[in-house]
Amino acid sequence: MPVITAPLDSTSHQDPADSDQLFPIREVSRLTGVNPVTLRAWERRYGLIQPTRTESGHRLYSKSDIETVHRILDWIGRGVAVSKVGKILARDDQQATVVRSEQDTVEDAEWPQWQARLRQAVSGFDDRMLERLYGQIAGTYPLSVAFQNVLMPLWEELLRHRSQFGQASEWLFYDAFLCAQVAQRLHLACASPAPRVVMAAIPGECRELELLVAALLISRDDLAVKVLGMGQPFDELTLVCEKTQPCALVVFSNHSPNHDLHRRLNRLALTMDCPLFLAGAASELAEDDLAGSSIGCLGNEGRLMQRRLRQFLNGQLDT
């Protein structure tokens, strides 16, 4: 397990988001909460980070390196062993390259500018300004871009720093706002006569907003997504589907799958009258275990999840 140090007050230090300069290992440790010993081990043993070196051999880390450290921490927090993180990061980078090529009309430089304005609204607990910015972002970009490249990265940043004084309140304010906005969109979509997909989280394996955003990105005009409440009992999903008759059930998890997940999903699939799918980070990590089963893996990226779900339901993709 990595050795984590408590983050210190950052008021007297320069934030890497404000500069392209290189940072020494002690500053990276302060910014990320990861002990220098652990940072060196991630470099030497696993090749997860590749800092540059000064002529005297001292490590210097870029903003990209610091972002990589946060990504590593996110995956470790989901229960993934550090020895497996490298392969996941490489896969995520490959997916991001594909998504970026599909979004070549979007200026990446605009996203940090929107996030800076959002951060100002959040730090001032200004719900009116936040609602105005949200409407502008949602009206400027496709939903997948708005959430994955603008809204959720700030949410994740605030979540990482919520242990600092004041940050927890800011994250809760922003989280509650986004949950309300996404839930309202999903509710309006479910009022239409379009066929429904039921979506449920595996208890304790994601946050509510992650589930809601995934449902929003999966939904489309001809397919509504009904999200079950957080804490929905796994063993009662069959009962819910018997009564609601959805065209599919999507189970969502952002946690590393335990050894029993594929067995539980296979047992659940045997009791279902509709197709069963797994979405979220767990679907990518469990893909090998579920290969050849009746459970389809949708992935963890908005456009990919929607595309795979459509292909599965249309019989264009085998589980």
TrEMBL record:
Entry annotated with the keyword ATP-binding: no
Keywords: DNA-binding, Transcription, Transcription regulation
One Pfam family in the UniProt entry: MerR_1
GO molecular function, one term: DNA-binding transcription factor activity
UniProt keyword annotation of DNA-binding present: yes
CDD domains: HTH_MlrA-CarA
Start and end residues of each HTH merR-type domain: 22-91
Top-level division of the source organism's lineage: Bacteria
Classification via InterPro entries: DNA-bd_dom_put_sf, MerR-type_HTH_dom, MerR_fam
Protein name per the record: Helix-turn-helix-type transcriptional regulator
